[in-house]
Design goal:
Layout (H helix, E strand, L loop, with lengths): L1 H5 L2 H32 L3 H6 L4 H12 L1 H4 L3 H24 L6 H28 L8 H12 L8 H6 L2 H16 L4 H31 L8 H12 L8 H38 L1
Length: about 280
């Protein structure tokens, strides 16, 4: 029975809804992710961006590099995000449906580990596509092959340390979201949006320094340095504020994206299940 629940139609619907919701939300707020990514790096372009607020940074990139720069690399990001969220939602809800007995936080950590180990190479390619010039590959598959051939297969898992640490981020997010949903009568898209925003804001602030290290290591910056050593180096060079460079853009992007993702997810799930329920009633009649 547990195995049947793990591979149930309901679990598949939730995974598809999670993947679709994440693609919709990232499509809307992708320019904010571009700004966040640029601010987390260390080059002549990012140093100037750090003096601007998020809106000013978006306008600056738009004027200097054009609209295309704000959406550079969006296609592989959406592909990777869809795959990533499908793995996460399927693992989380599959184990929950199977009656694993784990708390939401533990389920979130397990789902996060499964997600990192299977999809990290996609995110390594994405980080390079956003910033590298010239770009030696046009998409995910080209990027995977190019990095493996030129830097070794292990380079596809650059930043795996902080990525595994960061499984606590979606775990915290899902735990808070599920807890709020159980305790607060939820009616309509606005309520789902607010609950999703609160959950993601808490998770992002709690784990941001590790996300900063992850971005630098995925891009090949200090990839041979441990996460703790990298964070200590940033702390010595820039002080505590350095551990949170780009936080404003990250919070704005991730909170809005997560909130819209949860709204889309809940709407898709309820829509599909309502159709299934109606069909079931018709068959019985």
């Amino acid at each position: 029975m547990a195995q049947q629940n793990l591979f149930s139609y309901e679990t598949f619907v939730r995974a598809i809804a999670g993947a679709t919701g994440s693609i919709i939300s990232m499509s809307v707020f992708y320019p904010l992710d571009t700004v966040r990514f640029r601010m987390q790096l260390e080059d002549e372009h990012s140093e100037y961006l750090k003096t601007l607020n998020t809106f000013q940074a978006v306008v600056h990139i738009l004027k200097k590099e054009g609209f295309e720069a704000l959406y550079r690399g969006v296609k592989p990001v959406l592909q990777s995000l869809g795959a990533s969220n499908f793995v996460y939602f399927y693992t989380f809800h599959g184990l929950k449906k199977a009656g694993s007995g784990y708390h939401d936080l533990a389920l979130g950590i397990i789902a996060g580990i499964a997600n990192v180990l299977t999809t990290l190479p996609l995110w390594v390619v994405n980080s390079r596509l956003k910033i590298e010039k010239p770009i030696y590959y046009s998409g995910l598959l080209d990027g995977l092959v190019h990095i493996a051939n030129t830097e070794g297969v292990s380079a596809l898992w650059n930043g795996v340390g902080p990525s595994l640490m960061l499984v606590i981020n979606p775990a915290i997010q899902f735990t808070i979201y599920e807890a709020l949903k159980r305790r607060i009568p939820v009616r309509g898209a606005g309520a789902f949006f607010i609950l999703g925003a609160i959950a993601k804001a808490c998770a992002t602030i709690a784990t941001y320094p590790i996300q900063l290290a992850q971005t630098k290591q995925r891009h090949g910056i200090n990839s041979n340095v441990s996460t703790a050593a990298l964070l200590l180096s940033i702390l010595k060079r820039s002080g505590p504020a350095g551990l949170f460079q780009g936080l404003e853009a990250k919070l704005l992007q991730t909170v809005l994206t997560a909130a819209l993702m949860f709204v889309s997810y809940e709407k898709i799930v309820r829509f599909v299940f309502s159709i299934l329920l109606n069909n079931k009633h018709k068959l019985k009649a």
